[in-house]
Every structure is written in C-alpha cells, then in structure tokens.
Specification:
single chain; 264 residues; alpha/beta; Uracil-DNA Glycosylase, subunit E; five-stranded mixed beta sheet; 5 strands; 36% helix; 9% strand; metal-binding; 4Fe-4S; iron
C-alpha cells in the first residue's frame, strides 16, 4: 500500500478498499485509510477539481479535497449516517457535515440531544466534541450534483462496514435519507444481522430493530438535512429532534454533554 504526499495510505481499487478496510485495527487507522482512498476515478476528479477551483467566498482557504472520514468516539452507542460530503462543506473542511447548512442542522440537533458540546461545527480545531455518537457518510467523497452512482456506493461500503464494526457498543443507527438507508442494508447483512423480508421502505420516523451477532440494533429513518428538505419545511427541527431523542432513549439514556459541568 503506497502513501500519498500527506502520508495517507493510498487505495486504488474496490478490492483494495475491501482489504484495507478489513485490516484497519481501530478508528484512527481506518480514518487515515479512508483519507487516502482513490478507488472511484469520477469522484477523485471532482473532489480535486472543486478543491482547486474553490468557491469565491472560500478562495483563501486550503481545501481538504480528499475522502472525509467519520467523527466521534469508539464507545458511541449511536451512529448517524448521511449521504456524502458537500463539495464546499466536508470536502473543504475535512470534517464530515462541516462547513455547510446541512452541518449547521445536524450538529445543532446533536447538541440539543446532549451528544455534542456545542451547536456548531465550522472547522477542524473549533473545539467540537461528540459523546456517544459517531457521524459518518455512506460515500466519503463529494460527488458531482450530490449524486453518487450505485457502483461508487458499493465501492465505498467496506469503509462504513468496518467503521460500524469498530463501534462495539453500537445500538442505534440514525439514517439520513433514502440513499443511506439503501446503502446500509448490504453492510448489515455482511455483518451478520438478520434482515426482514421485504426490507422496510425508508421514511421519516421509520424504526426497525434487527438481531445480530452484537445484539439488537435499531435503525431510525430521518429525512436528510439537505437544504432541499430544510428550506421547504419537509424536515423541521422538532422532527429531527424527535428522531435523535428516540435514538438516545433506545441507546440507553441521555449522555452527559462533553464539557458540561457535573451536577449534584
């Protein structure tokens, strides 16, 4: 496995992704391997073009321009899975759901649920800490028109599979949008979970509990925090809060917000 100029191990084929993901011993290793992935030529070309051309309002910033790893601790009982990084969000900042309006929504909601120490995520090093939740995307590179292909989704799926496997306390997965919902089923089947037939259709508030080798795992559906949904009112803050409140309940109770003063 070669390394790129920044030192990240480079993976160039779908088979290489599967091998590299399977061999990651912890989240730190996995994150580094995700960051060096070059297995989808269309996505590589797009993310790097965006990072070079930039948006005018960010012209003085250095874009990440790489696949975006997940964020959150290994002892998380809740995972939140979205679609893919935004071209001028995660692809710019190097942090999932960070630097765009979708991130504004999800991190504010995580803060209200007691899973984050602050309601904003603007850049790496801004002081954000997550407790009891891991945030990730089904596809790790920013795609043209925010639309990964099925082949790109499948190539990327071993990263998500290994990430979830490295969360031994995982009890709940909040899935943002139908793309993530579809992407998750083969990942869970490969992990040994017994899937219902027919598979439940995606919908906001849909709740499905699966039995597997690590015990029960509940999937919760939520409309994605895209501007298309939030600007039109299809997804409101109370709707998102209700899903995350339910996730915390199913996971075993409210976490202590990181950085919060102890009571009593």
């Amino acid at each position: 496995m070669n390394a790129d100029p920044a030192g990240f191990p480079v993976t160039r084929t779908p088979a290489g992704v599967a091998r590299s993901a399977r061999g990651a011993r912890d989240l730190a290793v996995l994150d580094a391997r995700i960051s060096g992935c070059r297995a989808c030529p269309r996505l590589v070309a797009w993310r790097e073009e965006v990072a070079l051309v930039k948006r005018a309002s960010f012209r003085d910033e250095d874009y990440w321009g790489r696949p975006v790893p997940g964020l959150g601790p290994a002892d998380a009982r809740v995972a939140v899975v979205g679609l893919a990084p935004a071209a001028h969000g995660g692809n710019r900042t190097g942090r999932v759901f960070t630097g765009d309006r979708s991130g504004d929504w999800i991190f504010a909601a995580l803060w209200r649920a007691g899973l984050a120490n602050q309601p904003t995520s603007t850049h790496v090093g801004d002081g954000l800490e997550l407790t009891d939740v891991r945030v990730a995307a089904a596809v790790r590179c920013a795609p043209p028109a925010n639309a990964p292909t099925p082949a790109e989704r499948d190539t990327c799926s071993p990263w998500l599979a290994r990430e979830l496997a490295l969360l031994p306390r995982l009890r709940v997965v909040v899935v943002l949008g139908g793309f993530g919902w579809t992407a998750l089923w083969p990942v869970l089947a490969g992990a040994g979970y017994r899937l219902p037939r027919p598979r439940p259709a995606f919908g906001h508030g849909v709740e499905v509990t699966l039995e597997g080798p690590g015990g029960p795992l509940t999937l919760l559906g939520s409309y994605h925090v895209s501007q298309q949904n939030t600007f039109t009112g299809r997804l409101t803050e109370p709707m998102l809060d209700a899903v995350l409140t339910r996730a915390v309940e199913l996971a075993g109770g409210r976490a202590d917000r990181p950085g919060a003063a102890a009571s009593g």
